Amino acid sequence: MRKKIIAANWKMNMTCNEAESFLDTFLREVGQEDHVEIVIIPPFTAIAKVSERLGKVQNVKVGAQNMSAQKSGAFTGEISAAMLRELFVRYVVLGHSERRTLFGETDEVVNKKAHAAHEASLKPIVCIGETLEQRDAGKVETVLETQIRGSLAGLSAKELVETVIAYEPVWAIGTGRTASPEQAQQAHAFIRKTLAAISDQSTADKIRIQYGGSVKPENTTSLMSQPDIDGALVGGASLDPRGFAEIVKNSSVD
Ligand code: PEP
């Protein structure tokens, strides 16, 4: 019932030329994969090029890595939701751990951005996840619950269903260390339980929860076979068009 969603977070990689050449190879390799929704999330500067190239390609959408909570005005260096919509962006990543750690984004900021995204009909991919220190201290559930309640506060049931949650344990991002399928499933089940607590069970059952953290072609199937894992947010491995196509294909499991 929940269509899997596999997203490529390119971070600060890929010029326009590199993005074009990635798409040539990726689209050829992935073929007509329509069991899975695919999202390409380039840096801002390559969004227009990627959107143009994907214009007629169904099932591959464009995302952004961040946006401002403000509509317009004197916010030098910022990009608004309307500017993204104009470039046919459908998804926006909010609260990635790199934004939280390196740029001081709090749950409150993520929450403001989530409301601004929905107002502009952009679907947020809200990232949450614990550090290794928090996991070792037995605080995984407390951390996840605080992030969920803070980042999603005030969203309606309809908006929650249009929101994607990305569970990204910080210790697994870019480290080559992946959560085991069981560890990830346990966190995802807890996230769904918390989503039900802030809304209701039927709403929570419709929300897609991605796993992120060193996803690669070899570990995709075992992760995606877990009942509460509805897709992946892929960083490093999404820069290789053939590898990313393999991840997409390996995700097509029920
Ligand atoms: C990410 O940055 O969202 C991510 C999951 O990175 P990686 O796949 O490289 O761990």
Assign the structural class, choosing from mainly alpha, mainly beta, alpha/beta, alpha+beta, or little secondary structure: alpha/beta
Q: Which fold name corresponds to the CATH topology?
A: TIM Barrel
Give the tally of structural domains. Answer: 1
Low-pLDDT sequence parts: none
SSE pattern: EHEHEHEHHEHHHEHHEHEH
What is the number of E strands?
A: 8
Oligomer: single chain
Binned strand content: 15-25%
Bound molecules: phosphoenolpyruvate
Give the C-alpha Rg.
17 Å
Number of helices: 12
Largest sheet: 8 strands, parallel, barrel
Looking at the overall shape, the CATH architecture is Alpha-Beta Barrel
CATH evolutionary superfamily: Aldolase class I
Strand line-up across the major sheet: 1-2-3-4-5-6-7-8
Outline type = globular
Determine the N-to-C terminus distance: 10 Å
Mean pLDDT: 96
Helix content: 40-55%
- For the record, the CATH class is Alpha Beta
